[in-house]
Design a protein that fits this description.
The complex is a heterotrimer of chains A (about 90), B (about 250) and C (about 210).
Chain A lengths: L2 H4 L1 E2 L4 H7 L8 E4 L5 E3 L4 E3 L5 E4 L6 E7 L4 E4 L3 E5 L3
Antiparallel strand pairs in A: 1-4, 2-3, 2-8, 4-5, 5-6, 6-7
Chain B lengths: L6 E12 L2 E7 L11 E7 L5 E7 L9 E6 L5 H9 L5 E8 L13 E6 L3 H12 L3 H5 L3 E9 L6 H10 L3 E10 L7 E2 L4 H10 L5 E7 H13 L7 E6 L4
Parallel strand pairs in B: 7-8, 7-11, 8-9, 9-10, 11-12
Antiparallel strand pairs in B: 1-2, 1-6, 2-5, 3-4, 3-6
Chain C lengths: L27 E2 L20 E5 L5 E5 H5 L7 E5 L4 E12 H10 L7 E6 L4 E5 L9 E6 L2 E2 L9 E3 L12 E7 L29
Parallel strand pairs in C: 1-5, 2-11
Antiparallel strand pairs in C: 2-3, 4-5, 5-8, 6-7, 6-11, 8-9, 8-10
Chain lengths: ~90, ~250, ~210
Amino acid sequence: MQSEEMRLDGNAAAGVLRDLFTVDTTAAEATCGGCGKVGPIGALFEYGHEMGVVLRCTSCETPVLRIVRTDVAMYVDFSGLRLLRVSQ
Amino acid sequence: MSRLEWRVATVVGVRDETPRTRSLVLNVPGWAGHRAGQHVDVRLVAEDGYEAQRSYSIASAPENESVELTVERLDDGEVSSYLCDVLGPGDGLELRGPIGGYFVWDISSDGPLLLVGGGSGIVPLMSMLRHRARSDAAVRSRVPTVLLYSARTAEELIYKEELEKLANGNDSLMVCITLTRDAPAEWRGLRGRVDRAMLEMVSATVSGRPNVFVCGPTPFTEAVATLLVELGHEPSRIRTERFGPTG
Amino acid sequence: MSDTPFIARGFHRRRPEASANRLPPGQYETRDFPVLSAGPTPRTPLSQWDFTINDPTGRSIRWSWDELMALPHESPTVDIHCVTKWSKFGTRWEGISLDTMIAAARDASLAIPSYVLAFSDGDYSTNLPAADITGGKAWIAFGYDGAPLAPEHGGPARLLVPHLYFWKSAKWVRGLRFIDRDVPGFWEQLGYHNRGDPWKEQRYQGDP
């Protein structure tokens, strides 16, 4: 089975994201730092499986958000996320 | 207190929907309600400390008193086989939620609704249909809805009787079921995998610019979403949720 | 987080095999070969594939696919251990020992300092101490279980460093960059350990 058949989407990261942000962010609009594509976090491709969360742009595959939770800390790499717009 | 808390729900009932799926009826203390389409995270901890965690879509309507999950037993699925075969009424089940804000639908989202589900992808869509059914006819008539549900065989159809009842009793709801592997001789529904022609047919039945929700295994969900865009649905009106293989 | 977790009645992990002394701490045995990927499967055609070793001075040495295949092959059988807690015993591989390739790099006057960053197609990378890929401990593997290495498992070629957690065995590997100072790779940037010895349970940064 290829990686693409096993990828999920940002909905699968909703629980982890909910531990980081005080509101749900899967409907928030993310601007990809690689190509500028804008779309909801929930629609990003999710890889990473049990290692962590890797949310990639559906256009250019840049990792927009990467999250790992260890026993003592949560590591979040935002470097591929240029902008996040969360509706109030 | 903004983190979602883990809570221990009590199983008040179980219901075998098909040979491979079971619904769990849960009483969740402190439950603040949910929106149709959301899910919960379930956490199982063994005596030796071994821990497993999975996400399950909520099957029940937000108006329901109890929270219902429908679980498919996957081959070698250590969590799904526990939930389907071992967990019983009176047992505790640790969960947190509701989770999700993208793949959600409320009756207040006026306008037509197109739901496409593959296998256990029907579960969050059922929450949406059950939520819709709680509104009166006048409201429902403003939300004409089509469900296209793909299952392998008739035995694997989850919520079969309830879907028939909803479709027959309802003005503006059409339920289309396709069986992809094996259909009984008397089967009068659709046959074969969801393809462009089938999607074209259901799209034609839903007038206007529907909100679209597609849920199921990744290959199914992506193929359907791509076809729907090709058929002219606006990408921003299509929301997808991919179910993974883990059990 | 509560101090006393709720114990689910009657729940236990899938039964492990009785091979306890081959299992590093915290692991369980699997007979499957789970696929974990951080991104889509790359598809570099062999005609465009190459493997490069770079050193800090900018010197490099490169092999095409055919040149790699011409190097002596080995057939290691090893146990592998994933940081997500599964271990798989007796996996059979075919590959080129990294000792062969590093010897060629030395012959080409490359400097071999203390650390190395393995890089792959896609954006994957992983760092390791150079000492962990020499002395018969590492291979470029292109065959698994008697067949060419499948793409989802890292084919056409992956790094194989079985004495460390398996995220160090970079799939779709395209080269090694020898570096003076340790630089964290893809997962190491996110908290995973710079070395990753399963027998010392070096899963995360800060683990001894």
